[in-house]
Amino acid sequence: MLVKEVIDIIEEFAPHTYAEDFDNVGLLVGDKNATVTAALITLDTLETVVDEAIEKNCNLIISFHPIIFSGLKKLTGKDYVEKTVIKAIKNDIAIYAIHTALDNQFKGVNDMICEKIGLKKRKILIPRKGSIKKLTTFVPNKQAAGVRKALFEAGGGSIGNYDNCSFNLKGEGSFKPNEEANPVIGKRGKIHLEEETQISLIYPSDIEKKLLHALFSSHLYEEVAYEVSALENENQHLGMGMIGELETPEDEKSFLKRIKTEFNCGCIKHSELRGKPIRKVAVLGGSGGFAINNAKAAGADIYLTADLKYHDFYKGNNSFILADIGHYESEQYTKDLLHSYLTKKISNFALILAETNTNPIKYI
Questions:
Q1: Residue 359 lies in a domain
Q2: What is the CATH number of the domain that holds 185?
Q3: Which residues bind a divalent metal cation (predicted)?
Q4: Roughly how many angstroms between the first and final C-alpha of the chain, as a whole number?
């Protein structure tokens, strides 16, 4: 397989359109037309990870965090970023980063945290707005079922736990083909009235190209009438963080000790305990200080995240617990998630989990 073909498979799961605007995802280093010998899957791409890739004959590194985050003006090897990029280029190793595209995926980073904790009734903590669109088109009544089927198969009409969702309204359409037209229905130069069905359905914006291709391929008319509109609806299956419930409430200390063991935390920094059982848990892998108020508004008993600052711990106002379990610790299972997904999709070459521990924080 080529690098670009592997990227296509990755982005079927977590398209780059899922990523935050500030992020730097995608192919960061290398030739997209290169043939992949083997791929190394890692949380971070460091010089030591490139060394591991060389040792294991991998010419593609699939990384969660992007090694290049802000612009590089020079490549002189003055810091760990430049050294890593130089070594990758010298050894013809491509680097692909997924980062917040996977953060925002419903079955991504935060779902893995919930799975490890055992949370049920999972929901996105901060659903994304502006990622849902609506397609409206007009089809002869006899062809309506076929066009609907094609649109559903392309991914349109899915709402949460429901699919094949559409609204259909019957009416009468009119048109007059000119002399250059090649109408399937009606005659040139004459006004034609046709019994039609108006089909409306919503879809995630990242599948628009695929959806419109399905529309044009299945529609009878030479000129297809359609309308696309952006919606302000929140996408309940796309966004940052997640919240869920424990099947059985747990004592605060027992819960935190379980988290420390499960995530192999050197320590857990947390706000004052309240003496109440834990049932509703909010999570956000990586730096999650920005979502404290969202966790509070969602009614969480505890919010698990990382990189909380000193004053962040006051923001709970003793209404819920804030717990910093560590950046690396909260995202460590991401590479397992990527490995599991890709091994189901690719059998042409080896997919190897990196053994290099890239956690820069140590505990004494």
A1: no
A2: 3.30.70.120
A3: 65, 103, 327, 331
A4: 45
Is 307 annotated as belonging to a binding site? no
pLDDT tens for 57-66 read 999 999 999 9
Is 192 known to sit in a ligand binding site? no
Nearest to 237 by CA among 318, 157, 158, 322: 158
Q: What is the DSSP letter of 65?
A: S
* Ligand-binding site membership of 222 (annotated): no
CA distances from 122 to 125, 242, 247, 279, 281 (A): 9, 7, 12, 13, 10
Q: What is the pLDDT of residues 245-303, one digit of tens each?
A: 999 999 999 999 999 999 999 999 999 999 999 999 999 999 999 999 999 999 999 99
Q: In Å, what is the CA distance from 104 to each residue of 98, 111, 144, 344?
A: 11, 10, 34, 21
Is 311 known as a binding-site position? no
Nearest alpha-carbon partner for 131 in 285, 212, 11, 237: 237
The DSSP secondary-structure symbol of 313 reads G
Q: What is the CATH number of the domain that holds 347?
A: 3.40.1390.30
Count how many domains the chain has: 3
pTM: 0.89
Task: Provide the token pair at 140.
Answer: 């002869």
Distance CA 155, CA 203 (A): 7
Enter the tokens of residue 122: 């999972």
Where in the sequence is the domain holding 117, given as residue range(s)? 109-126+239-325
Q: Within this chain, do residues 118 and 90 fall inside the same structural domain, yes or no?
A: no
Residue 82 tokens, joined? 């430049």
